[in-house]
Specification:
Elements lengths: L12 E5 L4 H12 L3 E6 L12 E3 L5 H11 L7 E4 L16 H29 L2 E6 L13 H21 L4 E8 L5 H14 L3 H11 L11 H12 L10 E4 L8
Parallel strand pairs: 1-2, 1-4, 2-3, 4-5, 5-6, 6-7
Amino acid sequence: MGAAGPGELSGRQALVTGGTGATGTVIARRLRQAGAEVWTVARSMPSDHSDPGHFIAADLSTVDGAATVAGQLSRVGGLAILVHVLGGSSTPAGGFAAIDDEHWDTELQRNLLAAVRLDRVLVRAMIEAGRGAIVHISSIQRKMPLSNGTLAYAAAKAALTTYSKGLATEVAPHGVRVNTVAPGFIRTPAAERLIVRIAAGAGASRDSALDQLMDSLGGIPLGRPTEPDEVAELVCFLVSDHAAAITGAEHVIDGGTLRTI
């Protein structure tokens, strides 16, 4: 059993939100390698985007953004695969008291409601077709919230996981599968920049800064962050026919960071 090989997803339309970020870009590329026709969504298209003809500019934190995506996809046929990668945190450090209503609204819109809205306008067609695979990217922080800076993000991801479980139960009888993937520390360019900043601030080496960052998560038994390619392989497996009996499940990919079952 493994992820979809070349051509296994041929003839299937796929959508990847947050498709210009480090992880979203790699997931989109992996799905294309498996033969899917992949659309990506973000607020704006980077100048070096690999497939401009399959890019949709939309802000999914708004109702209009979801409607824009639905309108575009209605002209190209039914969607078979939806991978919701969009997420992130912009709240300040300082604990719960530093997170005001605007911060909470931003985190909930980006990390929960964007997926809810998009599912509402796209999943109905999957149900009518009797087939579909959805993956929502959550986070291990739903189980281990870091209260100093990402409490609202963690709460939104916990809600996303709960919502995904309920959605999976509802749509499974119609042939539509819903799973979540909960990454830990992923080695992205943004993470690398953070490591460099920590090293510069402490007058330490990059490796010691990386160790400090991993220690802040309670350690990573595997000894390294997860690579975006590894997340993409897991997602590609979950949307493929190899995972035809898997739905309503959370799949943690964190190098062993979470110690709980």
